[in-house]
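Revision sheet: structure tokens.
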Amino acid sequence: MRKPHLMQDEAVTVGRWRAADKDTDRGWAWVILFAAVVNLSIILGVSFSFGVYYVSLLEHFQGSMTQTAWIGSINTLLVFSSGPISKALTGCLEYRTVVIIGSVISAGGLFLSQFATEVWHLVISYGVITGLGFGISYTPGFAIVGLYFERRRAFALSILQTGAGIGCFVYAPLAQQLIAYVGWQGAMLLTAGLSLQMCVTGALMRPKLTLPEKPCEKSVLLSTFCNFDALCNVRFLIVWLNNLLWNAGFIIVFILLVDYLYSVQGFPEREAVINLSIIAACNAIGRPISGLIGSHKKCNRLHIYATTAMIYGVVIMLYVINDLSMYWYASFSALFGFFLGMQCGVLPAITADLFGAETLMSTFGYLMISNGLGNLIGPPLAGKPIKYLS
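Predicted:
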């Protein structure tokens, strides 16, 4: 494969934080990976489990499905699209400092959410503030793991992404129990405490400096936000559009599936929530499997990416079949989670393959914007058809 072109201004940032050779693929690299997995578990576990809150918020505020869906959509939008902000901060601060800042912001948003008396209050507190905090903490984990691993990078990045499945698998049923015992407001407060744990794991993401520290200057921040090299690359724009479309589709399942199975198909809420855990568990299994397969020198990671997307797209359409037992829907959830996990498991490695590991902070950050936009438009658009079906 042709050697990726190094984008402007990336080498400066990467050079400052590049891991020492003795920690590449070993030693502290595994501590970094562990910390990043825990952070991702918290971030995506909370954001992708919004469907559990969705039912309670509909009943509490008596708002429309579309209006309530905006809360979770804006949250995931900012989780995935705050990459440029995070990159700007890492141009001046250590990765661990940026993660800690994001942790405090997200905890603050969750704390404020318990006082909401209108849907729009949650749009600001949970959607904007919490989403922004999570987004700031999200991208540094991928960037620093990509720098600490070279030979095992594809495997490490796929392991990192199991955090999404682990987080949702644990947090979705936990959130349901918290809501049952202390209400959704109390659940938000306790989740704020969980978010603060990223301060601990973020502190483990120590850099290995190889160049003298440089002061933060306006020119550094300006170059971060104005680095549009990737956006001038046609191949990158195709990948960007692809991310937008598949994210608009898959996020509908995470946010609306619980309410769909509960309100439309008539299953108990507990059984509906279990489907999220099934998706998450199979998602966590699919990610490292795709990483292992993708690490083989004769394997084409792009083929894995495209094939798995096609398969779970067909599976999503099966959910609309009526009068099936829960075992069928659970099977759909298992297939959906597994193949979604396989696709997501190779995405960071594909990004590094196509555009260079040194540019991962920029290119992956732009891809996260497309992911966020897809997450923003998907659930509100799907709310009206579900209301019609019900």
